[in-house]
Amino acid sequence: MTETTRAGTTSSRVRPEILAYYGRGEEDGRLRSGAGLLEFWRTQDVLRRVLPAAPARVLDVGGGSGVHAEWLAGDGYRVELVDPVPLHVEQASELPGVTARLGDARSLDAADGSVDAVLLLGPLYHLPEREERLAALREARRVVRPGGAVVLATINRFAGLHDTIRQGVFFEGPERRALIEAAATDGVNRISERQMFTTAYFHQPEAVVEESTEAGLTVLGQYGVEGAAWLMPDCAENLADPERRGPLLAAVRRTESVPSLLGVSGHLLTVGTVN
């Protein structure tokens, strides 16, 4: 099958508004500067603690432009990245030590038990239907070896509510506020002309455990990525200050798995395995 055919098949399964959103090419820079560095550094911190040791084989599913694949390859991992966005695959293919190809989290072309770790650091955001998320989780379970790691990133249920209040846009009108409050109720982020994000699903932490367990994974732990620090108005400034950055990251790590604080974080990492 040619690359062109695979691209058409993969892209046709992804909602067009999601492809359009990521096709703008803005995701690569989001995690490389400003407050986005908190998500980047904290994800890196957790992954370095929970992944099998290098040179383990890591399948980075929905890995975008390779923001995390890049440093994983630098750490000595054998990294394969799969993403449904052609621009992302093109960007990731240019990274040293990273193999990138088009693909869909719900139907992976890797063999059973063929990788040491699977990263799903984006796909679950954009699968609003539960059965689609379960399909992606079951595929991750299928391709990882027994005892390997599956790491899932989800957006927390109230992330949109918290973020828009922090930025002040929550108060810009009843139409936008209604959409934000609807997402906080059922988890579905609906797009409109004024929405800053695309179609997405926002999880409750306990629901991630339920879905992972139903898909056959054994959950080992959950980690709030940004903690409460991302809601502070001076977050970016503190990250830019070398004297404050270390203490800030240490403070977030201190509270990362406190059950009562998991939902405060913008993103959540859930780590599972296959027995």
Overall tally of domains: 1
Sheet with the most strands, sense and barrel status: 9 strands, mixed
Our measurement of the CA-to-CA distance between the termini, rounded to an integer number of angstroms, reads 34 Å
Helix content: 40-55%
Mean pLDDT over the full residue set: 93
Beta content: 15-25%
CATH fold-level assignment:
Rossmann fold
CATH class: Alpha Beta
Low-confidence stretches: 1-9
The count of helical stretches stands at 12
- What Rg do the Cα atoms give? 18 Å
Q: What is the global morphology?
A: globular
Which architecture would the CATH scheme give at its second level?
3-Layer(aba) Sandwich
CATH superfamily: Vaccinia Virus protein VP39
Counted beta strands: 9
Write a compact overview of the structure shown.
The protein is 43% helix and 20% strand. The chain contains twelve helices and nine strands.
Can you describe what's shown?
The protein has 275 residues and is α/β, with parallel strands linked by helices. The protein has a single domain, classed as Rossmann fold (3-Layer(aba) Sandwich), CATH 3.40.50.150. 43% of the residues lie in helices and 20% in strands. The protein has twelve helices and nine strands. The chain has helices at 3-13, 16-23, 27-30, 36-50, 67-74, 86-93, 130-143, 159-167, 174-186, 205-214, 235-240, 242-254; strands spanning 57-61, 78-83, 98-102, 115-120, 144-156, 188-189, 200-203, 218-224, 267-273. Strands 1, 2, 3, 4, 5, 6, 7, 8 and 9 form a nine-stranded mixed β-sheet that branches. Helix 8 packs antiparallel against helix 9. The protein starts with a helix and ends with a strand. Mean pLDDT is 93; it is low at 1-9.
